[in-house]
Design goal:
This protein has 180 residues and is of the alpha+beta class. The protein has helices at residues 3-19, 36-45, 52-61, 108-114, 130-138, 150-155; strands at 34-35, 67-69, 75-78, 99-104, 116-117, 124-126, 143-148, 161-162, 168-170, 172-173, 178-179. The protein folds into 2 domains: 3-78, RNA 2'-phosphotransferase, Tpt1/KptA family, N-terminal domain (Arc Repressor Mutant, subunit A); 99-179, ADP-ribosylation fold. A hairpin with a 5-residue loop joins strand 8 and strand 9 (168-170). Helix 1 packs across helix 3 (52-61). It holds the Pfam family PTS_2-RNA.
């Protein structure tokens, strides 16, 4: 499969598994898992054709590790980034002392005023390294990397989760914990 086709399938999976499964009449369970055969069949009915082998390649090669199979590859889900209500069944964990959040320069005033909100997503996404945060910030304009005092947040009772692909998640980051 070529890179363009891989990206096309990946974008489609992000839409369906994170935001709008109803677009193809797909049912996700309470933990966000979809039946792989049903996904392939319903996608084909909506003119999005791919095989199990192509789906496997997309999951394996996605640089952000956005998707995961269950052990026997009969189910698939997005690792995080959902705007629909699902329970990823993640266990609270202690984060490192500092994590990073990449955003566009245009958002800095609002963030430094109001903090980082999850908005339509289930969680705020934080990165363990500045390179990843920079890539995230570049998607929206001139990137700015914010340092988040997650150790202090954790000490004060704020919960954090680590998704299967290494993204740190929390519900909200108050401005008092953010520095440029």
């Amino acid at each position: 499969m070529n890179e363009i086709e891989n990206k096309r399938i990946s974008k489609f999976l992000s839409l369906i598994l994170r935001h709008q499964p109803e677009t193809i009449h797909l049912k996700l369970d309470e933990n966000g898992w979809a039946d792989v055969e049903e996904l392939i069949t319903k996608s084909a009915h909506n003119r999005m054709h791919f095989t199990i082998e192509e789906l496997d390649e997309v999951v394996e090669t996605n640089n952000k590790k956005r998707f995961a199979f269950n052990k026997d590859k009969t189910k698939i889900r997005a690792n995080q980034g959902h705007s629909i209500d699902i329970d990823l069944a993640l266990i609270p964990q202690q984060p490192p002392e500092f994590l990073y959040h990449g955003t566009a320069e245009i958002n800095i005033g609002s963030i430094m005023n109001k903090g980082i909100e999850k908005r339509s997503r289930q969680h705020v996404h934080l990165s363990a390294d500045k390179d990843t945060a920079t890539k995230v910030g570049m998607r929206h304009g001139k990137p700015v990397i914010l340092t988040i005092r997650t150790g202090k947040m954790f000490e004060e009772g704020i919960q954090f989760y680590l998704s299967n692909n290494g993204v740190w998640l929390t519900d909200f980051v108050d401005a008092q914990y953010i520095s440029k």
